[in-house]
Amino acid sequence: MLTRGERTSHKWRRRPDGPDKVTGALRYLTDMSLPGMLHGKVLRSAEPHAFVLDIRTAKAERVPGVAAVITHLDVPGLNRFGIVNPDQPVLCEDRVRYVGDAIAAVAADTKETAEYALSLIEVDYEPIPVVDDPELALLPESPKLHEGGNVLHRTSYRKGEPEDAFAGCTHIVEGTYYTPRQMHAYMETEGGLFVPEADGRLTVYAATQHGYKDRMQLSRILGIPEEAIRIVSSPIGGSFGGKDELNVQPYGALLARKAGIPVKLHNSRRESVRAGLKRHPMKIVMKTGIDGEGRLIAHEARITADTGAYSTLGAPVLNFATEHASGPYRIPHVSIEGVSVFTNNGVSGEFRGFGGNQAIFAVESQMNRLAELAGMDPWEFRRLNLREPDDPGPLGQRILPSAGLLKAWQSIADSEVWSRRTRKPTESEPWIKRGVGAALAMHGSGLGYGIPDPGGGRLSLTKEGKLEAAFSFEEFGQGITATLELMLMERFGCGADDLSIVIGDTDRVPHTGSSTASRSTTIAHIALSKLHPQLSERLIAGASAMAGVAAERLMTGPGGIWIKPDDDSGSSLAATYKELAETLGGELAFETKFDFPVTPDPIVGGHYLYTCAAVAVEAEINTLTGAVRLLAKHHAVAAGPAVNPMGYIGQIEGASVMAQGFTLTEDALMLDGHYKTENLDNYIVPTIRDVADDFTLHAIEELPEGDPYGPRGIGEVGSVALAPAIAMAVRDAVGKWVNRLPIPREELIESFASQLAGKTEGAGAT
Amino acid sequence: MNPYTWRAVVNGAEAELHVQPAERLLTILRDDLGLTGTKVSCELGRCGSCIVHMDGRPVNACLVMAYQCNGASITTIEGLAEGDLHKVQEAFLEEGGFQCGYCTPGMIMSVKALLDETPNPTTDQIKEGLSGNICRCTGYGGILRAVKRCGGNASK
Known about the structure:
heterodimer; A: alpha+beta; Aldehyde Oxidoreductase, domain 4; 3 domains; 7-stranded mixed sheet; 5-stranded mixed sheet; 19 helices; 27% helix; B: alpha+beta; Ubiquitin-like (UB roll); DNA polymerase, domain 1; 2 domains; 6 helices
């Protein structure tokens, strides 16, 4: 089990960003300020769907203290943004499609002045009927949000003849599953500081998960070269996918350039809820059939995703959901179809798990029901149907064979939590019911086939004599700086104070892609595996010349290059890194570029590397209140070596509790295109009270022999399988099937009288 | 200039400002005094990111107005440690009690308040004491370990 203990002690390290975080000394980008800076505010649409007939800003412009007011007329370049397909207006011209659409923005000497000026901007709307149901949005008579209609994207995957195959099935389960509009709820809302520099460049201090992508998008909007923009994007107070797309950056940049003065923007929580991304709510209809022995024969899935008003990453999210809708099983006949639909319900986009969470909830719930129909133990049922390592991937593509799936399955089978399924303790009160459930998943890493996914890195000896690693990653809490530090210390045998780690600044790092899709750790591993021998060899050659010692007798270590002892005399220092830097007279740098590993088969979005995971959970249901309390969790994760155990444990614990919110309490409710949950008082994020006291993490660290890809990302996989495990536990405890998340409490409530009666009957029946 | 004078002792030093009587302590700390260690998140007293101590008791700085804390002694995260790190800060570092770190100042101020009142809290007492602080990253595991390291009992 991965715990803080002997096994991990040599790698259990305080994070390099820790001291500044626990003392409050760390300046987040929203903590920054400059003398004389302006405060920016954005006017968001009052209507979820309307034509904009007129925008009048004259009164706002006359307010003393207002330095700049902008509308669509002030956008010099492309008045659109969007990572894949730029279709979201920076500032709306003639139409709004959700309540977060921006219409105007103001920069003023104080926040209050900016807010007052905003209130004086007059907008004439002509409402259009609100499209708030993706299925209705698909009807021909529904108003169209975009020129191309209301369909953002369709997917389809097929193998075999599922329609015919169902005829031969012994048991068929049909289920419809609904998942919530989960909010990232990062504690730091969007914002930053936008500084027009004396040399005409613009510096953007604002959170993102892909600095170079922000630079490209802002360049397009501002109509200036990318090189004229510097993006500083770390540190970040949480993201979980939510800050991957542009948010306030266009407004800060436009205002700062118009006013010629630095501008600060920082969303209030309400602004963040209103404008920010959410997880795609999905309706997933599944039909799955087995033969008399319990073997999966045919599987159909129909996914409808509510993508909201604009594209952002809605299409790739649907691709991912499609890929993950048949689970890690051998099924000869499969048909999966997905559609991602534009509505006036906010904007759905990237979120930890990336569409896998929804699909895995549905497909694992199907497995639970089928096992029961077959009269089988649900875990044995999965074992019977498990894919083999050499089987093609879920879209028929070649994937890297791995024994991780079976090991994750075995971990649950052997777990203490799962063993309690058959020997349940007696409940203290008749209305308290206990149950145990589990679920299994494999989850793709990287962006997938056909999507540019550049990686790389730079490793150098700086003029100051530091070993410096530079990547275009961002630190939003996941601990990438700690992981890089550990990777470098292991390779060079050096100390932390020999290192310099540079991330999150487009002026200082090479383009190594985004900090998303559980890809950074793998990219760093591959890059350092290429670069470390190159730099190390040059350092040793340099030291060899300086000290007159053969290179074979030298090695890198703490502070510099050491002479290996040829007897018991101990090693001695041949040259410090600083001396080497001085002798070499300048920076010694090595850079590499490569793409994240993808499947060789041309299946768009198809993954090559997968992380396998399973979770077992014990839950207690109070049938008087419908509350579900988690007592114990056992997570098994097969992701290769745990480079950074503190980070690894933290990622799984954190993802698990986030998934608990997805399952039990979290939903950004909307009515007629308006948010009803506007802040953290009624959008219910789990607190420390909701944590299961018993938590076990089994890290399965073996990799296939000769594996060149190293540790797999673990940022997402802890969040993908908990919901169906809880659903199984609920079934176990109270005999009810859950098909909607968050689990509606009212479905679990039973009258007290019926329970007392049930207890008597139950006693007779068993 | 605002006619209202606000005086307080902030992290041991006397502070005097001319502010609106209804100005929030959160704004005074972050914008007027530059103490950005106190964080801003929900601004309605739910998340605990802005917790500071007012006369030794934890308060959400977003809910306290200038006139309500006039004359008070305020301690923020910047004023917690005297010299080296406070033992709570050490424990958070050692046990991984934070990730993005944005909830951390408020969380640590809540832990400090909890331990001041209950030096050896049970798990239930820890959970009660920290239920006003939301952390979105850690799943609270590292936080529980950190508090237990500071003196909490693992038993109920």
